[in-house]
């Protein structure tokens, strides 16, 4: 997806320093969560990380779960399950729309 087509929440425009200020997490913690595949910042041609508001929200959720003692591996599993559910729900809605369009086509 092209950066211009994204909602403002998903555009990767925020520096790691600003993300650190917004979340209260250190740069090191943020990079660690990236290493653990809990988020994926955009990298500029010079390698600078850029984050979105959605990434900031995700980091806040991760920090809350870590404070509750949840391990990063479990957080990753939970995130993958949630994404799979969302993908399934989207496919189901798309299929339902196709079926509705097919069977209602030409009927009034």
From TrEMBL:
* Transmembrane segments annotated in the record for this chain: none
Q: Which UniProt keywords apply?
A: DNA-binding, Repressor, Transcription, Transcription regulation
The reply on keyword Nuclease is no
Taxonomy, superkingdom: Bacteria
Q: Annotated Gene Ontology MF terms?
A: DNA binding; DNA-binding transcription factor activity
Q: Does the keyword Transmembrane apply?
A: no
> Where is the HTH merR-type domain positioned along the sequence?
13-81
Task: Give a single Pfam family match.
Answer: MerR_1
According to UniProt, the name of this protein is: MerR family transcriptional regulator
Organism (species) = Metabacillus arenae
């Amino acid at each position: 997806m092209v950066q211009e087509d994204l909602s403002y929440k998903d555009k990767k425009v925020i520096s790691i320093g600003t993300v650190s200020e917004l979340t209260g997490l250190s740069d090191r913690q943020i990079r660690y969560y990236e290493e653990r595949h809990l988020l994926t910042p955009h990298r500029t041609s010079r390698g600078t990380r850029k984050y979105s508001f959605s990434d900031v929200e995700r980091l806040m959720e991760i920090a809350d779960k870590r404070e509750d003692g949840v391990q990063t591996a479990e957080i990753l599993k939970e995130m993958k399950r949630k994404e799979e559910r969302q993908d399934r729900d989207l496919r189901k809605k798309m299929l339902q729309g196709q079926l509705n369009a097919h069977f209602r086509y030409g009927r009034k």
